[in-house]
Amino acid sequence: MTWINLLLDVVLIGLVAAGLVQAGRLISHLSGLKQGRLEMERFVREFNTTVLRAEAGIKGLRAAARDSGDDLEKLVEKAVLLRDELQFIVESADQIAGRLSESATTAVRPVEKTIEKIPEPKPVPAQKETVTLFTAKKPVETLNASQASRAEQELMQDLEKLG
Q1: Cα gap 54→81, rounded to integer Å
Q2: CB-CB neighbours of 151 under 10 Å
């Protein structure tokens, strides 16, 4: 019986040793899990901070896009107004150029073949200087050939620039 007790004691010591080894392995796995949990918590906190910063950045980008969109919309409105105004100016200039062309063609008469001597101008007595901004239209009585053609050429050049 002593042998049986001794054998049971050895088996029991072996089982306790195996249990201790398993407990040590279990403790190391639990400490690894605890370390992993701490790292996971730190990762979640950092990820949360990053997400909050990204959301703030997105809000800032949306605000900037809205502001720049509003600015762009205002610029487009101004451009449309300027385009309309320029179109009105060009149409008015075309009408004025047409009237000038008509009046230039009716004002030019055939050039006389004889050249008359132009009388000397009479001296004008000294008066106060006055500046007139506008003068009444007078029909052109006669133009010589060089004046008429030069005026027509200048008018045509101005019309081409407008057109």
Answers
A1: 40
A2: 15
Q: What is the mean pLDDT of the chain?
A: 80
pTM reported for the whole predicted model: 0.38
158: which residues sit within 8 A by CB, 6+ positions away? 97
Please answer whether residues 77 and 109 qualify as being in contact, where contact means their C-beta atoms are separated by less than 8 angstroms.
no
Report, in this order, helix, strand and coil percent for the chain, each rounded to 5: 75, 0, 25
Segment 30-76, tens digit of pLDDT = 999 999 999 999 999 999 999 999 999 999 999 988 888 888 888 89
* CA distances (Å), origin 67, targets 71, 74, 75, 77, 78: 6, 11, 12, 15, 17
